[in-house]
Amino acid sequence: MDQGTTLTQFIIEEQRRIPGATGDFTSLLNDILTACKKISCAVNRGGLIGILGSAETENVQGETQKKLDIISNDVMIEALDWTGHLAGMASEEMDDPLPIPDMYPKGKYLILFDPLDGSSNIDVNLSVGTIFSVLRCPEGVENPSVEDFLQPGTEQVCAGYALYGPSTMLVLTTGHGVNGFTLDRSIGEFILSHPDMKVPETTREFAINMSNQRFWPAPIKRYVDECLAGEHGAHNKNYNMRWVASMVAEVHRILTRGGIFMYPADSRPGSENGKLRLMYEANPMSFIIEQAGGASHTGRQRIMDVKPEGLHQRVPVILGSREEVEVVVGYHGDGKDGGREVA
Ligand code: AHM
Ligand code: MG
């Protein structure tokens, strides 16, 4: 496909390659795109329409919600609940899954999303994003329960993110590689700008919140110490470091120029499994990174193999360039951390 291809054209072409496809999934993706365009507009206009700042409410994880977290969540629901393609929705910002209202037809897919990831960046005008993961609703289930959503990442039909940065981008996988699209505001369409994205295998760039260093488990401390030692250390190369505090922006950088991103478990109360949510952040990003040739791990297990136990469960995340992720995973297995998750 050439570079003038719109995302709508792209997904219709993909659909034609699947015998018996009904077009339901294509329509669902179109609805997601519409929601992302609306969120992009809201994020862009932010201060002009008085929607920056805290909403002074808390989500299920006890995190203070921003006004834009709530607006973005509402935009996703309004764009998706009536269309007949979904059997249920779950969001990082809602305690329980949201059923499809009785007045609308039900579809065969489930969606999980983080409507505005990295929202601590909103008020300082830095990049944020929307992350989504699409699963099949189990056969014969009309009103999905939490258990119906608790499928491992390997079951994802599609995962993607919208990045609201200097330009708005949509990056998507349906299990056949990863493609990136840039929003052309003059025509209101996402245009294929980054076909077949690949994570470079090796890297000299790491991303981690260094302020938590004293709480990290031993394998993470060891790896970062070695990075800091540069060409005189175990890896014989000098590293650069980045931390945007916006997972979408970090993953996008890694897809573009390589790198490793880590949000490990740590010994702070409540951080025993890290910060990032398996269902809304870790699984969709792992699907994208693996489809682009990278790796994604907890340190003990491939993230997409983790059997989910709760809708909002957290998981340690180590993802990015394959060689580097393998080094960190290797440190978890060599006994030097005493077999503990947390130092
Ligand atoms: P959020 O979903 O509440 O925005 O939190 C997730 C974000 C990630 O985008 C980012 O990697 C991480 O939190 C940053 O956390 P910290 O502020 O601890 O560095
Ligand atoms: Mg998030």
Essential attributes:
alpha+beta, D-Maltodextrin-Binding Protein, domain 2, 2 domains, 8-stranded mixed beta sheet, 8 helices, globular, binds 2,5-anhydro-1,6-di-O-phosphono-D-mannitol, binds magnesium ion
Structure, briefly:
This protein has 343 residues and is of the alpha+beta class.
End-to-end CA span: 49 Å
Derived structural class: alpha+beta
Biggest sheet record:
8 strands, mixed
SS elements, strand count: 15
Number of domains: 2
Q: Radius of gyration in whole Å, from Cα?
A: 20 Å
* Helix/strand order, N-terminal first: HHEEHEEEEHEEEEEHEHEHEEH
* Oligomeric nature of the chains: single chain
CATH homologous superfamily grouping of the largest domain = Fructose-1,6-Bisphosphatase, subunit A, domain 1
Overall shape: it is globular
Strand order in the largest sheet:
4-3-5-6-7-8-9-10
CATH topology of the largest domain: Fructose-1,6-Bisphosphatase, Chain A, domain 1
Give the names of the bound compounds: 2,5-anhydro-1,6-di-O-phosphono-D-mannitol, magnesium ion
The CATH architecture of the largest domain? 2-Layer Sandwich
What is the helix fraction of residues, given as a range? 25-40%
Low-confidence stretches: 337-343
Q: Could you report the average pLDDT, rounded to the nearest whole number?
A: 92
Strand content: 15-25%
CATH class of the largest domain: Alpha Beta
